[in-house]
Amino acid sequence: MPEIINNIDLSAVLATKKKVESEGGHFYLEKHIDGEFHLEGSPMFTAALSSQQATFTMGADEPAVLGGKGVYATPLNYLMFGVMSCFASTIVVNATLKGIKLKKLKMKGHLYYDIGPMLTPGDFPLAKELKIEVESDQDLKEIIKLSNKCPAFFIVSHGIKTEAVQV
Fold this sequence. Notes:
Elements: E1 4-5, E2 8-9, H1 10-22, E3 35-37, E4 45-50, E5 55-60, H2 75-97, E6 105-113, H3 116-119, E7 127-136, H4 141-146, H5 151-158
Antiparallel strand pairs: 1-2, 3-4, 4-5, 6-7
C-alpha cells in the first residue's frame, strides 16, 4: 500500500530516487506535443496533451491586443500555469522527503513582459520578470531554494537551447 503524504506517493518518489542514484544522478525523460494553429475561430491553437492515464485537448487564444479572440487562456497563461504547477509539485515532493506535512500551499504568479518587440524592429527584452509568491502553513524558505531544480522553473530561469525549424 503506498504511503501518501501531502498528496504525494512517497514510496514512488523513494523508488525513483533510488533509480536516479543507481544511474549516477540521471533519469532522462522526454515530452512531445503536436499542435495546430487554426486559421478561423477559437481556440486559435490546439494540442493534444497526454498523461499516463489520458489524452485531452487544450486550446489557447491570443489576447485582443495581438489580434486574437481572447476566449481561451493565452499561451503565457499556460506557461505560467506550467511553471507554477511544476514548482508547487517540486516544493511538495521536497517537503515530503524532509518529513514536512503541509496543510496549505498556494501560489501567485506575476509575469512582467513587453510585446512591443514582437511588432516593431528593436532588440528590447520581451520578458522582464516571472515572480512566484508561495504561501504555506509551514516555513518553506529552504524547501523553496531546493525546489529551483524543478524542470519548468529551471527552463525559464536559466534558459535552454531553443530552436524553431520549418520541416
